[in-house]
């Protein structure tokens, strides 16, 4: 199972995009090392490697808002994962109490029409 994934590019870690399997909403991004990947695949719930605490943690182990794995996909370089999940518990995924960690909008400039920059 691990031979298919490239854990070496980021010093033993893979970025993991977590997506709701029902509505497609991106819920969070975390990191897995090989042990977190094994635990996720063998246990059925998403386990991450915490870079700040330097240890494994299973999402929702304390809160009950666990992430049940529905499917997992790798990208073409085999160095990033997309894990589709069903959220258990109250449905809160972010540590700030929201369903998704992606709640902070950032203003961006619109792309030019037909690749031509408009003059002001």
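Sequence proposed for the structure above (120 residues):
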């Amino acid at each position: 199972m691990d031979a298919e994934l490239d854990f070496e590019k980021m010093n033993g870690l893979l970025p993991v995009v977590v997506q709701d399997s029902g509505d497609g909403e991106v819920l969070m991004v975390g990191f897995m090392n090989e042990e977190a990947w094994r635990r996720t695949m063998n246990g059925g719930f998403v386990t991450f490697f915490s870079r700040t605490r330097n240890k494994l943690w299973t999402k929702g182990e304390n809160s009950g808002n666990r992430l049940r794995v529905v499917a997992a996909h790798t990208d073409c370089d085999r160095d990033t994962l997309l894990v589709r999940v069903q959220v258990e518990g109250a449905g809160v995924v972010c540590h700030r109490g929201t369903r998704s960690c992606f709640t902070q909008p950032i203003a961006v400039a619109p792309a030019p029409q037909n690749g031509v920059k408009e003059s002001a």
